[in-house]
Amino acid sequence: MAIDTDKVVQECFDAIRDRIANLTTLNIIIAGKTGVGKSTLINSVFREDLAETGVGRPVTQHMRRISKKNFPLVVYDTKGFELNEQVQQEVKHEVMKTIKDGFACQDISRAIHCIWYCVNATSNRIEPEEIEWLRELGKENEVTQVPIIVVLTQCISKKGCQELRKTIEAENLNIVQVVPVLAQDYEIDEDYVAKSFGLDVLIRVMGEALPDELLDTLQNLQIVSLDEKIKRAQAVVLASVAAATAAGASPIPVSDCAILIPTQIAMIAGIAAVFGIDLSKSLITSTLTSLLGTGGATLLGKTVVSNLLKLIPGVGSAAGAAISGGTAAALTAALGETYIWIMSLIFKGELTEKDFATEEGKAKMVGHFKEQLSLARS
Question: Which of 154, 164, 157 is nearest to 120 (CA)?
């Protein structure tokens, strides 16, 4: 069975576009005193400068809603409430009303999923009024259970931040974790620059606190942790491998191996959505034709599979071979891991789409694919 490669590429491109377009919107409330660096934090974590798109739409007296078209993130930014008790109470009331309204509508794309409370760590202290505000918020949030993360911003002194973190943790607040961060490199003088840190930890903590429906969105949006993207992408591969294994429960004749195409297209779309890289159709074409053959081959076309089966110990001659569940799983895993490898190199800026279109780039893809195939069957 042969399918036009161009058709498969188009189906893959459409699947990626649809997967990204249908990501669940992530909604975050960010609070804290004036000058804690909320805008810098937002723009450092996510792949769009969301906090610089304007003042946002006011939704309450002390809160504005910041969003961007075709970007699945909404930030509810509270105005700095300083130490004015009346304003503190008003902000807390507005935060809880926003949470309860989202909870009541039973639509995950409108619910509040996380709260960041930001504390400027340069003074190495948190005001008692802030502790009390967090304590009261935690009590009111016991039913809705929106994860609250305290983010220590501008942590130039790591030692001081760790001491402040321990001080806050000792208060036994209803929070998920205290995360010290330095969102951007900070030049202390011409001889020393404090390097940014902690944003990857913030993403990991969020990933552990959010429901599964938000994990693809979180990884699509964030630009600070390649490890977390890879971990989520590998979860996509594992699910696809399980599906491929089931498809091969009754051995598939090589000539019928195209039945694996939908599973593998969905896997590639899932990986692409996690990495949040704007991909061109040319990269998808280069990847699939390099790894899986040209000239009218299917995604796992007969000629390609016959050649690949020779690499798998114990399968035997390709002539008349059938794809077992294990073999289908190995081929799917190798494709998925190779695509993650490609996305990782592009994410790190080590290679570009154009690099993968060269003969050298194609050879690297094929080599990595064969290596992954060997590992999958070892």
Answer: 154
Spatial distance between the Cα atoms of 313 and 92, rounded to a whole number of angstroms: 63
Give the Cα-Cα-Cα angle 256, 259, 263 (nearest 5 degrees). 150
Report yes or no: 19 and 272 within 8 Å, Cβ to Cβ.
Answer: yes
d(CA 372, CA 241): 13
Residue-wise pLDDT for 236-278, tens only, equals 999 999 998 887 666 666 555 667 788 989 999 999 999 998 8
Q: Please state the pTM of the whole predicted model.
A: 0.89
Here the contacts of 363-372 (C-beta below 8 Å, separation 24 or greater) are: 365/286, 365/287, 365/290, 365/291, 365/338, 366/290, 366/291, 368/338, 368/341, 369/291, 369/334, 369/335, 369/338, 370/311, 370/334, 372/333, 372/334, 372/337, 372/338, 372/341
Q: Say if residues 361 and 286 touch (Cβ distance below 8 Å).
A: yes
Q: What is the DSSP letter of 31?
A: E
Rounded to an integer, what distance in angstroms lies between the CA atom of residue 322 and that of residue 253?
4
Residue 107 dihedral angles phi and psi, to the nearest 5°: -120, 115
Handedness of CA 217, 203, 42, 115 (dihedral sign): positive
For residues 249 and 244, give the distance between their C-alpha atoms in angstroms, rounded to a whole number: 9
- Measure the CA–CA gap between 120 and 212, rounded to whole angstroms: 31
Using one digit for the tens of pLDDT, what is the confidence trace for 41-80? 999 999 988 876 545 677 878 899 999 999 999 999 998 7
- The answer to whether 184 and 198 have CB atoms below 8 angstroms apart is no
**Residue 299 has which token pair?**
């995604």
Residue 317 backbone phi and psi in degrees, to 5: -60, 140
Closest CA to 179 of 193, 199, 194: 199
| Ordered domains of the chain (ranges, CATH) | 25-221 (3.40.50.300), 225-377 (no CATH)
